[in-house]
């Protein structure tokens, strides 16, 4: 366990809903490094000036989100694919 | 609507405080009336935003503790000593005051009776709040999904929803609720003592053979210890849903 300062993808639900226009915590995401698939809500999240989402299997950075002068930018280089859930 | 993805704009609403209830000296439930609220599922949360006169903003997420009830939303807020937002919500905000919030948010850590069970609810401290929304929804719907709930508190003074949980355990068929205290227990304490460890889970959680759906919420260390003990006991990781509140559980 890497300390207890982190939260999880549930905490980024509002920001992701703002960006994607739909609920995203139940979306499945595939880690570009190890190929494992997890719900966004189950990803590990470190909050700070930017929010860093890591794969719970291999710790690879899957998503980084920053807000600069009220502009959100979501970096997705660590995600192989995202698949939204079936519920709204 | 299952199977449809409706694009949704998440906008900040001005909500009015219509009720507040002291659950413990450090925990207060606040009920908001939110114009245009679309309803929500148990387990979802709201984001609350405070703006200072100089424009500085602070934002936090709080679980909703009640099932859908028109435009009413209740959150249970734990007061953190150095909390920018929680101290305002618990110490300053009064009935009739207005505040900015948005939601509902969340599609992973949610449960409704149609998802079935058996349902395991395991909460640490104020992490019990979203589980309470699930339990209240199960009772309100007259669902027969069997429930085992395990709530971990530091001391007896920290127990929230105590009377309501006792009434549900007494009156609802198929619901068992156990409280455990991790720091100190008063004389005559009839609940359990000690942490939610592997032994406690092997006695009080559903056996893995019954393929339960288990929701775990609370401080990060608590959630990860419980989830890994459940996996060790043979539970399917895909049927363990987790929500981590961070180091302090608020």
List the helices and strands and how they pair.
The complex is a heterodimer of chains A (88) and B (250).
Chain A: E1 7-8, H1 13-20, E2 28-31, E3 37-39, E4 44-46, E5 50-54, E6 61-68, E7 71-75, E8 79-83
Antiparallel strand pairs in A: 1-4, 2-3, 2-8, 4-5, 5-6, 6-7
Chain B: E1 13-24, E2 27-33, E3 45-51, E4 57-63, E5 72-78, H1 86-92, E6 98-105, E7 119-124, H2 128-140, E8 147-153, H3 162-171, E9 175-181, E10 192-193, H4 198-204, E11 213-218, H5 220-232, E12 240-244
Parallel strand pairs in B: 7-8, 7-11, 8-9, 9-10, 11-12
Antiparallel strand pairs in B: 1-2, 1-6, 2-5, 3-4, 3-6
Question: Which terms would index this structure?
Answer:
heterodimer, A: three-stranded antiparallel sheet, 1 helix, globular, B: 250 residues, Elongation Factor Tu (Ef-tu), domain 3, Rossmann fold, six-stranded parallel sheet
CATH topology of the largest domain in chain B: Rossmann fold
Share in β-strands of chain B: 25-35%
Instruction: Report the C-alpha radius of gyration of chain A, rounded.
Output: 12 Å
Biggest β-sheet of chain B: count, sense, barrel? 6 strands, antiparallel
Which parts of chain A are unreliable, with pLDDT below 50 for 5 consecutive residues or more?
none
What is the number of E strands of chain A?
8
Helix content of chain A: under 10%
Number of strands of chain B: 12
Question: What overall form of chain B do the CA principal axes indicate?
Answer: globular
Largest interface by Cβ-Cβ < 8 Å: A-B, 28 and 32 residues
How do the strands of the widest beta sheet of chain B line up side by side?
Answer: 4-3-6-1-2-5
Low-confidence stretches of chain B: none
Outline of chain A: globular
Task: Name the assembly state.
Answer: heterodimer
Mean pLDDT of chain A: 92
Find the CATH superfamily of the largest domain in chain B: Nucleotide-binding domain of ferredoxin-NADP reductase (FNR) module
Strand residue percentage of chain A:
35-45%
**How many structurally independent domains of chain B?**
2
CATH class bucket of the largest domain in chain B: Alpha Beta
CATH architecture type of the largest domain in chain B = 3-Layer(aba) Sandwich
The helix/strand order of chain A is: EHEEEEEEE
């Amino acid at each position: 366990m890497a300390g207890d300062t982190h939260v999880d993808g549930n905490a980024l639900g509002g920001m992701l809903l703002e960006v994607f226009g739909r609920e995203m915590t139940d979306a499945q995401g595939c880690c570009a490094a190890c190929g494992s698939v997890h719900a966004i809500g189950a990803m590990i999240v470190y909050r700070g000036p930017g929010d860093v989402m890591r794969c719970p299997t291999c710790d690879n950075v899957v998503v980084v989100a920053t807000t600069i002068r009220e502009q959100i930018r979501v970096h997705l280089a660590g995600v192989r694919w995202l698949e939204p859930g079936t519920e709204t | 609507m299952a199977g449809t993805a409706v694009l949704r704009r998440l906008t900040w609403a001005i909500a009015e405080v219509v009720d507040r209830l002291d659950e413990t000296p450090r925990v207060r439930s606040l009920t908001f009336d939110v114009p245009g609220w679309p309803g929500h599922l148990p387990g979802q949360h709201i984001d609350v935003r405070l703006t200072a006169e100089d424009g500085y903003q602070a934002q936090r997420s709080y679980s909703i503790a009640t099932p859908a009830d028109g435009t009413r939303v209740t959150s249970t807020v734990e007061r953190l000593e150095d909390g920018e937002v929680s101290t305002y919500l618990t110490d300053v905000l009064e009935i009739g005051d207005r505040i900015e919030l948005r939601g509902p948010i969340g599609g992973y850590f949610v449960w409704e009776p149609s998802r079935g069970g058996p349902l395991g609810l395991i909460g640490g401290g104020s992490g019990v709040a979203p589980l309470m929304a699930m339990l209240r929804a199960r009772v309100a719907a007259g669902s027969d999904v069997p429930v085992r709930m395990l709530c971990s508190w530091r001391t007896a003074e920290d127990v929230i929803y105590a009377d309501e949980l006792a009434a549900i355990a007494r009156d609802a068929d198929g619901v068992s609720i156990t409280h455990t205290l991790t720091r100190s227990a008063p004389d005559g304490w009839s609940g359990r003592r000690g942490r939610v460890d592997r032994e406690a889970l092997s006695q009080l959680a559903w056996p893995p053979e019954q393929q339960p759906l288990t929701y775990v919420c609370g401080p990060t260390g608590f959630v990860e210890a419980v989830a890994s003990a459940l996996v060790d006991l043979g539970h399917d990781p895909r049927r363990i849903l987790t929500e981590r509140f961070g180091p302090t559980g608020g």
